[in-house]
Amino acid sequence: MYDCIIIGAGPAGMTAAIYTARRKLKTLVLAKDPGGQMVWSADVENYTGFTMVTGAELTLRFQEHMASLKEDLEVKLGVEVAKLDKNITSFVVEDTKGNVYYSKSVIIASGK
Fold first, then answer.
1. Which pLDDT score, from 0 to 100, does residue 24 have?
2. Which end of the chain is more exposed for a tag (fewer CB within 10 A), N or C?
3. End-to-end distance of the chain based on CA atoms, in angstroms?
4. What are φ and ψ of residue 40, in 5° steps?
5. Is 86 exposed, middle or buried (0-12, 13-18, 19+ CB in 10 A)?
6. More confidently predicted of 40 and 7
7. How many CA atoms lie within 13 A of 27 on its CB side?
């Protein structure tokens, strides 16, 4: 049982994961690949703290930040969520391979 499952690992999903893990919430991130649409951005000029950074470099920095919180944060890439349900005690997330995960909360950060 996780405290939070985050669906998506674009900028919003990775940021949410960093914040939940920093609060010591047992967090699982499920995503096809990290970075989302940001990865395809050649130049990112509107991100606080950077005058210019590539989308790929910013994605790498986000991933490094998440890796530093590995005690409370698990990331599964190459995963596509197929089903999301709510039962009496938890959320139930199922991926396309039939794996099932349970959580007290879910953040959907699917992008676009």
1. 95
2. C
3. 29
4. -85, -5
5. exposed
6. 7
7. 28
Nearest-angstrom CA–CA distance, 9 and 7 = 7
CB-CB contact of 8 with 109 (8 Å) = yes
Phi, psi of 93, deg, nearest 5: -115, 130
Closest CA to 7 of 86, 98, 82, 61: 82
C-alpha distances in Å from residue 26, one per residue of 21, 47, 73? 7, 28, 6
53-108 pLDDT tens trace: 888 888 888 889 888 988 999 999 999 999 999 999 999 999 999 999 999 999 99
Rounded CA gap, 104 and 55, in Å?
32
Residue type, 32: K
| Alpha-helical regions (H) of 9-102 | 11-22, 55-67
Q: Any idea which residue has 């391979």 for tokens?
A: 97
What percent of the chain stands above pLDDT 70?
A: 100
